[in-house]
């Protein structure tokens, strides 16, 4: 064994007690779906994990109706204090079942256990903990006194951070007093279904959270259902654009967290050791399946060769393989479809004249894998510099002056995130000012915290998740005339607001919906 | 044959330990009907000074913990208090001579206030702080920081609720406290200290003195290593003199409040014990 060899150290799967098949979680119970069930597999081995119910339009309607009933009868009438207590319970249960959730996540998604265990799941608990505390403090959310909830939120999430995206969606929605129908991604439904069991343990009132599984058509049926008041979507810009068109002209509010092509800018005075680690973390974290990944490395020209050499050396030490192994750095690509897309774009990079280098690592026989890859000599017009690859592929470009770095960084339809590496604080702040991106990391990358707003400029979507902004995304100001009503800090708005009449403008849309029956007010 | 009960010795809570008063003094705590309940420690000036030393030593750790961590610890207090609900209800019933229902309401509200303030730990800075659009190429941001050691004269009319209502907000931002309990109803304060001692609250962050506020408060008000004093329960004392004493070291002062709901939940009780720090940094592309 050389010093880079490790004995296998797989995390035990014994902690899991999975069912053979999972239904839809509607109105507090698991029920059969009426679509054709599908299987969820481990992308590292292609073995079947469980059969998953498929929600058709009727199931979607049931879920929305359950959420509406729970909103009208229970959740919108409950005090913020009690809503908060439910969320605190959920946070604690997630903490208590953290290891089980981490193992399930790595099994179903393919991400390394050290990431699901140390990043995803702890952040899930933190998200619920943070928003639990907001539930009885909505007067301070930034919308004036006594803001009101929106109603039923339709939430569709991606496969890259399955449980974490669930937490980003559900925690603020519930804190603000909304009820939820959430659809996890087709390839990663497992942890959402375990989470449904947690909701049962927490005794969350039935219907407050409904989790329906299925593919894109289920998601489309959900966001277009007319009983939905709020749409929250994380995923591709193409789907986000379709949702924005679909809800145009309706009263539905939307938060869209879409694609990215982040620039990671390295100046020649950057702390190089930290920068190398930051670049690696920026693009190879979670196999590059990160919307805010630092996929375009902009290096100041005079240090280009040094940075690239050191990156190659560092990537050669990364360990690709079993996601459940505690020493694994790079796990499996989430699906064959995604692997095909990465290969296609990567080949386009070569065809357009960029130079490809891949880390020399052994690729397992089964499953979906892609070795960490760097492209040098990339032109700004190349597809690999413009399109989101969503995989472990880094495109390296150069610049000479800060102005050129800024121009190149902003030369994209996306605007989710960016990184800046330099020892000069004044330069960090001046460059950050001019970058058109929603999150700027300086001398770090891929940091997330429930108190910190996250979201994009331009075609990376709109709205923010996290922090006070993420809470406000699930609230509307009090109807005019009601804001002045003083309420004590511990007995906040929602109780009284729930019985308040809706603004006149919303009424016509409500009454024309005979199909959603008496479940709507 | 009935079992003979084992009564608890009520002591002080300083630096995470439960010492007797260094003075050796105690005073009798009686139920409203005059029945003897316990001997509580009658804290001295030296005890108060020891408590300030312990509190000062604890500030850097508590203030340096992440806001998320402080929130979790404060929430943990609520969890453990909930687990000892029956004990506190019984103690308050006896001490205050109130019905079980009234005592239970006091305990429940105390638990919920810990939860409310726990939630503020990682949100307060977002509400009280802000970026400032100064007219120049500068990054400029203002954030609240804890002031340091806060001395508190707890509300005197309740066993637990007033005590919790005064202590919890001071802890949110990262201060440590020295609190003088209700002179008449000191027992629940010491029982709460047992909860704090097992709630991951670092030793010295909360220090509890029982005894005579009239005797101890002046020493705290004039102590040079105390940054702020909450006189919420000092209404029956010569609180103006205390405020004058506090002025010597320019302490932040909260004034007395009377009634059952003294120290009602408010953001102002958190901000009263914070300092605003504004940071400037140049912006330049060069």
From TrEMBL, chain A:
Listed InterPro entries: Ald_DH/histidinol_DH, Ald_DH_C, Ald_DH_CS_GLU, Ald_DH_N, Aldehyde_DH_dom
Pfam families referenced in this protein's UniProt entry, alphabetically: Aldedh
Record has Oxidoreductase as a keyword: yes
Keywords assigned: Oxidoreductase
Annotated active site: 257
Segments forming domain Aldehyde dehydrogenase: 31-475
Signal peptide (from-to): none
Stretches with biased composition (Basic residues): 506-521
Region span, Disordered: 491-521
Gene3D superfamilies: Aldehyde Dehydrogenase, Chain A, domain 1 (3.40.605.10), Aldehyde Dehydrogenase, Chain A, domain 2 (3.40.309.10)
Entry similarity comment: Belongs to the aldehyde dehydrogenase family.
This protein's name: Aldehyde dehydrogenase family protein
TrEMBL record, chain B:
Keyword terms of this UniProt record: Oxidoreductase
InterPro entries (alphabetical): Ald_DH/histidinol_DH (IPR016161), Ald_DH_N (IPR016162), Aldehyde_DH_dom (IPR015590)
Domain named Aldehyde dehydrogenase: residues: 21-253
Record-linked PANTHER family: ALDEHYDE DEHYDROGENASE-RELATED (PTHR11699)
Protein name (record): Aldehyde dehydrogenase family protein
């Amino acid at each position: 064994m050389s010093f880079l060899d490790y004995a296998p150290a797989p995390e035990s799967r014994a902690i899991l007690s999975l069912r053979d098949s999972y239904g839809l979680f509607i109105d507090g119970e698991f029920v059969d779906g009426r679509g054709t069930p599908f299987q969820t597999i481990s992308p590292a081995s292609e073995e079947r994990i469980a059969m998953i119910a498929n929600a058709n339009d009727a199931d979607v309607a049931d879920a929305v109706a359950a959420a509406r009933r729970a909103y009208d009868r229970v959740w919108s009438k409950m005090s913020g204090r009690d809503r908060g207590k439910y969320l605190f319970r959920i946070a604690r249960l997630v903490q208590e079942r953290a290891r089980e959730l981490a193992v399930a996540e790595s099994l179903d998604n393919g991400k390394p256990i050290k990431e699901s265990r140390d990043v995803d799941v702890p952040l899930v608990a933190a998200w619920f903990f943070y928003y639990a505390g907001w539930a009885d403090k909505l007067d301070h959310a930034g919308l004036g006194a006594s803001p009101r909830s929106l109603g039923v939120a339709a939430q569709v999430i991606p496969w890259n951070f399955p449980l974490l995206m669930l937490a980003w969606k559900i925690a603020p929605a519930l804190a603000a007093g909304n009820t939820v129908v959430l659809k996890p991604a087709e390839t990663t439904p497992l942890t959402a279904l375990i989470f449904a069991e947690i909701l049962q343990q927490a005794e969350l009132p039935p219907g407050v959270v409904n989790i329906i599984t299925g593919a894109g058509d289920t998601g489309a049926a959900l966001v277009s259902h007319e009983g939905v008041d709020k749409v929250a979507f994380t995923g591709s810009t193409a789907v986000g654009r379709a949702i924005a068109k679909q809800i145009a002209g309706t009263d539905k509010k939307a938060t869209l967290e879409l694609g990215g092509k982040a620039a990671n800018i390295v100046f020649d005075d950057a702390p190089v050791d930290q920068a190398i680690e930051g670049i690696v973390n920026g693009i190879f974290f979670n196999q590059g399946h990160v919307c805010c990944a630092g996929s375009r490395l902009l290096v100041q020209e005079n240090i280009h060769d040094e940075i690239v050499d050191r990156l190659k050396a560092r990537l050669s030490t990364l360990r690709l393989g079993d996601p459940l192994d505690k020493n694994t750095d790079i796990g499996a690509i989430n699906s064959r479809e995604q692997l095909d897309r990465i290969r296609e774009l990567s080949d386009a990079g070569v065809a357009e004249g960029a130079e490809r280098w891949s880390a020399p690592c052994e690729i397992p026989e089964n499953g979906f894998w892609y070795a960490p890859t760097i492209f040098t000599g990339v032109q700004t017009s190349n597809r690999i510099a413009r399109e989101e690859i969503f995989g472990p592929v880094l495109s390296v470009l150069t610049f000479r002056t800060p102005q050129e770095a800024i121009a190149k960084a902003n030369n994209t339809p996306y605007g989710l995130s960016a990184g800046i590496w330099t020892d000069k604080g004044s330069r960090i702040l001046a460059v950050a000012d001019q970058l058109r991106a929603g999150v700027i990391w300086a001398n770090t990358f891929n940091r997330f915290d429930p108190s910190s707003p996250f979201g994009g400029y331009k075609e990376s979507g709109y709205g923010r998740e996290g922090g006070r902004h993420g809470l406000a995304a699930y609230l509307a100001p009090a109807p005019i005339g009601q804001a002045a009503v003083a309420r004590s800090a511990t007995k906040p708005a929602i109780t009284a607001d729930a019985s308040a009449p809706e603004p006149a403008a919303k009424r016509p849309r409500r009454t024309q919906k005979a199909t959603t029956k008496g479940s709507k007010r | 044959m009935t079992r003979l009960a084992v009564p608890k010795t009520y002591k002080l809570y300083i630096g995470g330990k439960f010492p007797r008063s260094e003075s050796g003094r105690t005073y009798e705590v009686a139920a409203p009907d005059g029945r003897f309940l316990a001997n509580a420690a009658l804290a001295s000036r030296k005890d108060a000074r020891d408590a300030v030393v312990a509190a000062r030593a604890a500030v850097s750790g508590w203030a340096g913990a992440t806001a998320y961590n402080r929130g979790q610890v404060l929430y943990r207090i609520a969890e453990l208090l909930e687990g000892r609900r029956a004990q506190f209800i019984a103690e308050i019933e006896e001490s205050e001579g109130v019905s079980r229902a009234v005592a239970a309401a006091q305990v429940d509200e105390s638990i919920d206030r810990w939860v409310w303030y726990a939630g503020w730990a990682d949100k307060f800075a977002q509400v009280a702080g802000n970026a400032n659009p100064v007219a120049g190429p500068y990054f400029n941001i203002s954030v609240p920081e804890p002031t340091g050691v806060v001395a508190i004269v707890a509300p005197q009319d309740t066993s637990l609720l007033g005590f919790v209502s005064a202590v919890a907000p001071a802890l949110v931002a990262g201060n440590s406290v020295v609190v003088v309990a209700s002179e008449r109803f000191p027992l629940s304060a010491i029982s709460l200290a047992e909860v704090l001692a097992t709630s991951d609250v670092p030793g010295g962050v909360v220090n509890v003195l029982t005894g005579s506020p009239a005797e101890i408060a002046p020493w705290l008000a004039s102590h040079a290593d105390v940054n702020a004093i909450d006189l919420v329960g000092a209404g029956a004392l010569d609180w103006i003199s205390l405020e004058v004493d506090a002025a010597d070291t320019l302490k932040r002062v909260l004034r007395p409040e009377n009634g059952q709901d003294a120290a009602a939940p408010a953001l102002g009780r958190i901000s009263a014990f914070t300092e605003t720090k504004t940071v400037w940094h140049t912006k330049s592309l060069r």
